[in-house]
């Protein structure tokens, strides 16, 4: 584990797990809005995705490791967002954040839609890309068929 940016974490801050396409984007946005952010990734090369203006902390390490979470001062976090590419890692970190560290808001990305409803019961908000994408595509199709029907009606 390696602390890449040596800046003290504030009392109220967000921890993002996974500095992939989603995690880096989220961390950049929160940081640009002036939030206190700390991002953890097991691969330190992933931090290249952070923008030059990113003003938060970065820790290279496996977020399922309790030592890494403690190094990140997880108990001081108000929000934990687990968006690594592993459902198991996201679930494990989300449960640790809720049960052990009593974090108020915990959000986990889950690729498997069947697991989504289970974790809502534990007070963990879940984001499932497949479900969200299906809903968006359905919305687009509904709008497309609506405008197609209008064109047909107008031409009659
Ligand atoms: P993406 O698929 O682009 O959203 O990237 C997911 C990121 O999660 C990658 O940069 C992985 O290195 C990272 N990752 C996966 N498992 C873990 C873990 N257990 N702890 C920290 N980072 C992880």
Helix content: 40-55%
Shape: elongated
Radius of gyration: 19 Å
Order of strands in the sheet with most strands: 1-4-3-2-5-6-7
The low-pLDDT segments are 4-10
Structural class: alpha/beta
Q: What fraction strand?
A: 15-25%
**Distance between the amino and carboxyl termini:** 69 Å
**Tally of contiguous helical segments:** 5
For the sheet with most strands, the description reads: 7 strands, mixed
Helix-strand sequence: EEHEEHEHEHEH
Could you give the count of β-strands?
7
Small molecules held by this entry: adenosine monophosphate
Mean pLDDT: 89
Give the helix/strand layout:
Blueprint: E1 2-3, E2 13-17, H1 21-32, E3 37-41, E4 57-60, H2 66-71, E5 77-82, H3 87-100, E6 105-109, H4 116-120, E7 125-127, H5 129-155
Parallel strand pairs: 2-3, 2-5, 3-4, 5-6, 6-7
Antiparallel strand pairs: 1-4
The chain binds adenosine monophosphate (AMP).
Residues 17-22, 40-43, 46, 62-64, 84-86, 89 line the site of adenosine monophosphate.
